């Protein structure tokens, strides 16, 4: 089920430094920094140069391709054939096609297409919002981990949605999102479910993992006018640094657009 072993040396270039995608870095920088640190720690703990990474709902490879560029073997599971086609093209363009494999499937039927307990790291990004049972989705992701594995969980934040609707002048929708069990602001809301940091950590701990870190993602990025970031010299770099500084502070978790939780198995926590 996993991609073939590659003997290429890992690349050390981070996607944060990719000059062709400056604005994209605002969405991925905080999560990517946490992930690369987790990957490095797993490499040192296991003695393996390349990790086996599972990216559930990984789409066109926003994280899978950069992880493969670091030398890791990545399996992407996604229900969309179009996304998997884009993943294949993107991996080929990045020169990592031999380290990336796309498989059509979803979180519910995960073990119809991948093996249990076969991965050093599992990415579950933008998945829990759409599954019928978030606890089952997390449980499947954890079951795919090796005894010393790590889980990267990224999901939409309730507080960020409330703040965004309020700042846009949609006060009734903001109040509805605040009171709705799933954090939805109305029938036209494209996101089926949002979470608080407490809800996500409870799901991770309920699946038997230790919560190693919680970060707010896009605390300011979605609130700052794009024209300011694009035209003001040094603004993008300064905003990236601000996002990184605020990400770990609990006071800002409630206003972030997304929340990232890093979970560790007992074996990884003891390594």
From TrEMBL:
One of its GO terms (molecular function) is methyltransferase activity. Keywords: Methyltransferase, S-adenosyl-L-methionine, Transferase. Pfam families: Methyltransf_12. Gene3D superfamilies: Vaccinia Virus protein VP39. One of its GO terms (biological process) is methylation. Residues 1-25 are annotated as: Disordered. Residues 1-10 have a biased composition (Basic residues). It comes from the Bacteria. Residues 54-151 form the Methyltransferase type domain. This is Methyltransferase domain-containing protein. It comes from Streptomyces phyllanthi. The lineage of its organism: Bacteria, Bacillati, Actinomycetota, Actinomycetes, Kitasatosporales.
């Amino acid at each position: 089920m996993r991609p073939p072993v590659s003997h290429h040396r890992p690349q050390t270039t981070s996607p944060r430094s990719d000059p062709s995608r400056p604005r994209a870095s605002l969405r991925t920088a905080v999560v990517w920094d946490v992930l690369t640190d987790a990957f490095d720690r797993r490499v040192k703990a296991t003695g393996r140069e390349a990790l086996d990474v599972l990216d559930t709902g990984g789409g066109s490879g926003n994280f899978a391709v950069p992880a493969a560029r670091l030398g890791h073997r990545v399996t992407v599971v996604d229900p969309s054939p179009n996304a998997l086609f884009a993943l294949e093209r993107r991996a080929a363009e990045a020169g990592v096609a031999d380290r990336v494999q796309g498989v059509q499937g979803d979180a519910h039927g995960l073990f119809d297409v991948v093996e249990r307990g076969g991965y050093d790291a599992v990415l579950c990004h933008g998945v829990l919002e759409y599954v019928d049972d978030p606890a089952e989705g997390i449980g499947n992701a954890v079951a795919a981990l090796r005894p010393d594995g790590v889980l990267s969980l990224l999901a939409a934040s309730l507080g960020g949605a409330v703040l965004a609707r309020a700042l846009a002048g949609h006060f009734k929708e903001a109040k509805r999102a605040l009171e709705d069990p799933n954090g939805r602001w109305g029938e036209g809301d494209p996101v089926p479910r949002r979470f608080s940091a407490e809800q996500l950590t409870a799901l991770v701990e309920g699946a038997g993992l230790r919560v190693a870190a919680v970060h707010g993602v896009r605390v300011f990025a979605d609130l700052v006018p794009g024209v300011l970031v694009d035209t003001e010299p040094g603004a993008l770099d300064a905003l990236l640094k601000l996002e990184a500084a605020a990400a770990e502070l609990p006071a800002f978790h409630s206003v972030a657009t997304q929340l990232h939780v890093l979970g560790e198995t007992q074996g990884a926590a003891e390594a």
